[in-house]
């Protein structure tokens, strides 16, 4: 049983919100052929829908770029929003990276729905309550594939209530809580910003759950939900 209180700091309510889902008992160590076909179909779908030239004018991409500029102080033409970077890779003719089945499902969802996707190994953070808040100056984060970083107070983080950082919002996940071949229980967080509709966050999380259940043997007992302030997540 997974039960966690998921909350958003009052200073960030209205600025960020998330779709949250849980899938349990996945087999994340091998790729069923059918899953690879679904991912390839998703790549073909987005290539038929978008182009590199027109991407900057897509309203969903614009909402995340505006959030980078105005809330994070990041130039989104120099550091692309995570989902835009993935989509640009695909539109240049490259494949999505092969990491492990759950990560690859998340990446497919990200380019299909144009939202950042975070996937976290529930057992790695012990199912502790979670909060989205501003970081403290000097707080240390251990990002996937990079040295530890010292954060500043204008950065937004998803962390356990006792300080384990899962994510720098909405673009960088933690080495500590990442998907591994042995991961069994997965927390899905789809990151929203002003202008994004709730259905997009819910549908992207549901897409991930559906594929994990169908191809990785997972099970899900609750539908994804949106958190704008605080909510109990039970699965």
Automatic annotation (TrEMBL):
InterPro entries in UniProt: B3/B4_tRNA-bd, Phe-tRNA_synthase-like_B3/B4
A GO MF term: RNA binding
Superkingdom of origin: Archaea
One Pfam family cited in the UniProt record for this chain: B3_4
Gene3D superfamilies in the record: Phenylalanyl-trna Synthetase, Chain B, domain 3 (3.50.40.10)
Domain B3/B4 tRNA-binding: 64-217
PANTHER family recorded: CYTOPLASMIC PROTEIN, PTHR39209
Name of this protein: B3/B4 tRNA-binding domain-containing protein
Organism: Vulcanisaeta souniana JCM 11219
Lineage: Archaea, Thermoproteota, Thermoprotei, Thermoproteales, Thermoproteaceae
